[in-house]
C-alpha cells in the first residue's frame, strides 16, 4: 500500500520499548520508581464477602424473614429488588418453574399465572419440599421425587421448608405432564431443523457458535441442570480456559457425531444459540445470560425485540411479521428478519443495552429522543470546552464542525499537554464527568497513531496484534468529591484511578484485533468482537473484583468507531461515566455521554488524518505519573520506596500481586 510521502522514520521500536518499560516500571502511582513485585503485602484488601456474596447473604436473610412463601419468593426472584423478576424466573428448571407457579402464582408467561395456593400448616402438609438460594444466585426448589437440595446444590445458607397441600401436588402432577409433552414436541422440532442442515451444515453451525463463545463477554446459560458457559473456571464451551477444538467443549464434542447421538439438551441449546446469534450477532447471547436455553425463552426474547423494532420503524418500513409460536423454522425466519431490520435501523435510532450486573444479564433497548436533561448536560460540557479549547460553538455538533475546519492545533502542544488531542480528551472527560455528576469519568484510545498508520500501510497485522496494553491509554478523572469514597486518601484514589485506567487499556488491546483481517496471527490473538452500541449498567459492584474494589455501582459505556486511513475501527475510543453511590444513570445520561464520546471520536479521526499527512501525534500523558500528579499531587508519596505509607496500611487487593 502507498500513501503520502512521509518524513524518514528511524527504527524507533527500541526507543518505544524503552519508553514502555519506563512507563510500566511500576504501575501503581503511589509506588513510582520502585521495582514491581517488592511490596510486602497487598495494599487494599477486600473482604472475602465483598460484592455478590454479601448480596446473596442479605437476600437470604430477607427471604427468611418474609411473612409468607410468595413474599419470600419475590425477594429471591428480584434479589431483593436488584434484578427484574423475569430473569430469575427464566433461569428456573422446568419443574421448578411449575412448582413456583402452582405454589405462588408466579410465572414469566403471563397467560399461565394463577392465584397462589392457600397456605398449609407444616403438620397438615401432604409433602414437605424445600426452597434455597444457590451461590450463583439462582432459586433452587425441592419438588416431589427429588432428594434434599443440599445434596445437589451449593447453597448460600441452608433451606426453607415448604409445605405442599394434596391439591397442589395434583396440580403440579398435571402441569408437569403438560410441560413434558410440550418439551417433547420442541425437542423433535429442534432435531428436524438440525437434520435439515445436514452434517456439514451442523458442523459449520458449531464452528460459528464456538467463535461466538470465544469472542463474546462471559455468559452462563442453562439446559435444566446443565451449564453452558465460557466463564473461566467453569468453562463447558470454548472460552478463557478451553481452546477451540478442546474435547471438553460441548460444541467441539458434537462435531462429526451423528445427530441421533446428540442429547436432547445439546440439540435444543445449539438451535437456541443459533437463533440468538442470527438475530443480532454474537452479543445477543448476553441477552439470555443467566436463563434457561429453551425455544420458548428465545421466542419470548425475539418477540420482545420484534415489537421494539416495529415501534421504532418509520412508515417506510413494513412491520416485521410475528413468528409462529415456538416453531424453530419460523423463529429462524424471524431471527434473520430482525438482523436485517437492526441494520436498517442503525443510524436512525439509538440502540443501547441495559445491564443488570448481579446476573450479568443484558437487555437491548431503543432510546427515545434527547430531552431537557441531556441538552442541559451538553450545554454544561460545551461551556467547559469553550473555556479550555479553541472552540466557540454552543453544541457539540457545532464544536465538532469547528474542529473539522481547523484541526491543526490537535497536533501541537496545548495547555500543558504535548498535543491538542490530549488536551481535548482531558477537557471532554473532565467536563462530561462534571456535567453528569459522575464520580469518575474516563476515555481510552491508542498512544501512537503514527505507529498504527505505518502498520496499516504495511499491512503488518502481526505488528498491531503484538502491541501490549502499554501502547494504549486511558485518561481517568475523579470528581472533586471522589476522595471521600476512599477514606479521604488521595493515595488510594490515585491508585484506584490507575487501576481503572489499566483495565481500560486492556479493553482497547482486547478489541483492536477484532477490526483486523482474520489472518492466522489475528485469529490466534485473544480478542472480543468490538462493541458498537452504548450500555447502561446497574449494580456492577458485585462480580468483577475491579468493580468491587473501585466501588463501581452504576456506569455508562459509550464506544465509538474511528476511521484510520481506509479502515473503520469499531470501539476504538469510548467515554465511561461511573457512580459509586446515589441515583443510577438513566437514558438521558446515556444519550449525553454518547454525544460526548462522539466528539472525542471525531477529534481522534481528525488527528489520524493529520498523522496520515505527516504530523506526529503521540499521547504521552495519562500514565501512572500523570494520574499521581493530577490526583494526589506532584510530590512523591510516603512509602514510594516500596515499604508502604500511612494511606497504604489499611490494605487492598489487586488482580495480581505486583505493585500495580
Description of the molecule:
By secondary structure, this protein is an alpha+beta fold. It folds into three domains: 111 residues, no CATH class; 178 residues, no CATH class; 276 residues, Beta-Lactamase. The protein is 42% helix and 12% strand. It contains 19 helices and twelve strands. It has a seven-stranded mixed β-sheet with strand order 7-6-10-11-12-8-9, with helices on both faces. Strands 2-1-3 form a three-stranded antiparallel β-sheet. A two-stranded antiparallel sheet has the order 4-5. A hairpin with a 5-residue loop joins strand 1 and strand 2. Helix 5 packs across helix 6, helix 6 crosses helix 7 and helix 8 packs parallel to helix 9. It is globular and about 80 Å long. The two termini are 40 Å apart.
Low-confidence stretches: 1-10, 637-660
Radius of gyration: 27 Å
Number of domains: 3
Kindly state the percentage of residues in helix.
Answer: 40-55%
Question: What oligomeric state do these chains adopt?
Answer: single chain
CATH domain class of the largest domain: Alpha Beta
The CATH homologous superfamily of the largest domain corresponds to: GAF domain
* Classification by helices and strands: alpha+beta
Strand order of the largest sheet: 7-6-10-11-12-8-9
Mean pLDDT: 89
How would you characterize the largest beta sheet? 7 strands, mixed
Tally of strands:
12
CATH architecture identity of the largest domain: 2-Layer Sandwich
- CATH fold call of the largest domain: Beta-Lactamase
**What fraction strand?**
5-15%
Distance between the termini: 40 Å
Overall outline: globular
Number of helices: 19
